[in-house]
Design goal:
The structure is a homodimer of 112-residue chains.
Chain A: H1 13-22, H2 27-34, H3 42-48, H4 54-66, E1 70-74, E2 83-87, H5 89-92, H6 95-109
Antiparallel strand pairs in A: 1-2
């Protein structure tokens, strides 16, 4: 006879939304670039990630901005249209998640 | 004049593969169910996650097994075909990642 099991009731929509957001194609790489100290220009982020297209970076930055993980700030330029992207406070707080995933990759997949 | 910036060279394919794997639709929820102590049957995992289809659970478990994050073990049944799913050592080591994302969701999205 099989013993009764405790019910599983650990579903959490907030957790699921976050893991699926940061797991979208290129999102993890974009977050990692923005973890650097300074705000970054669009073209800097693009140049840092091999294979990422202009179109997808635009879409991902839009999603991150909508979720208040990234914000747009004026670039220190003469041009009035120059902007940069930087993490918000909640975005910066994702650093522990990025570090945990990086550490796992190092341990089990041989990452740097 | 804009000061020169340090080059960004923090791209890591292993990290990116992991974050995109665990961020696939329903994957985070499935991992969370399997973080429970005992191995789980297919139908238990299915029942624990509202909205998850039979077909997608099959696909996700196949992917997790291929990546050696989940393994199939015999169920303690009379039936010789009954199997269960449990995390491997590397899968269990993802717990710190799952906990970090859950904690972030709690802080910034009001999760439980």
């Amino acid at each position: 006879m099989v013993a009764p099991r405790p019910p599983i009731s650990i579903y959490c929509e907030h957790y699921q939304a976050v893991i699926e957001l940061i797991g979208r194609r290129w999102m993890g790489a974009i977050l990692r670039v923005l973890m650097s100290d300074e705000p970054r220009r669009f073209n800097e982020v693009l140049a840092a990630i091999p294979g990422l297209s202009d179109r997808l970076l635009t879409e991902r930055l839009r999603e991150l901005t909508e979720h208040e993980i990234v914000e747009r700030v004026p670039a220190p330029d003469i041009s009035p249209i120059a902007i940069q992207y930087r993490l918000t406070n909640s975005g910066r707080d994702l650093e522990v998640v990025v570090r945990a995933i990086s550490a796992w990759a190092r341990r089990w997949r041989g990452g740097p």
